Amino acid sequence: MIISNNEIPGLLQFATAEFKENDVIEMHMHESMTEIFYLINGTLNLIINEEKYLINTGDTFVIPPKINHSLKFLESTVLIYFNLSA
């Protein structure tokens, strides 16, 4: 199925991404965007504020707006993500 522009209200981006072991997305936040992630394969540490979570193949997680977060990839990882406007 192909998703056309404006077919899903608020959808900003729907994509896949690949990361290598030890890649890092530094601590940041989004003022008005929700992020939804699904790990196709791999492992990463998700840090939300001061808490660390181990995310594995098959896991899904959501980052609401205005939440500080970072990602450290523990092995080669492929994920799908959606960005939605608040």
General description of the model:
With 86 residues, the protein is mostly beta strands. It is built from no helices and 8 strands. The chain has a 4-stranded antiparallel beta sheet, with no helix packed on it. It has a 4-stranded antiparallel beta sheet with strand order 2-7-4-5, with no helix packed on it. Strand 4 (43-48) and strand 5 form a beta hairpin. The mean pLDDT is 91.
Key words describing this protein structure:
86 residues; four-stranded antiparallel beta sheet
Mean of the pLDDT scores? 91
Total number of strands: 8
The helix tally amounts to 0
Name the beta content range: over 45%
- List low-confidence stretches: none
The termini sit apart by 25 Å
Order of helices and strands: EEEEEEEE
Helix share of residues?
A: under 10%
For the largest beta-sheet, the strand count, sense and barrel status come to: 4 strands, antiparallel
Compact summary:
By secondary structure, the chain is mostly beta strands. The protein contains no helices and eight strands.
What's the arrangement of secondary structure elements?
Blueprint: E1 11-19, E2 24-28, E3 33-41, E4 43-48, E5 51-56, E6 60-63, E7 69-73, E8 77-85
Antiparallel strand pairs: 1-8, 2-7, 3-6, 3-8, 4-5, 4-7
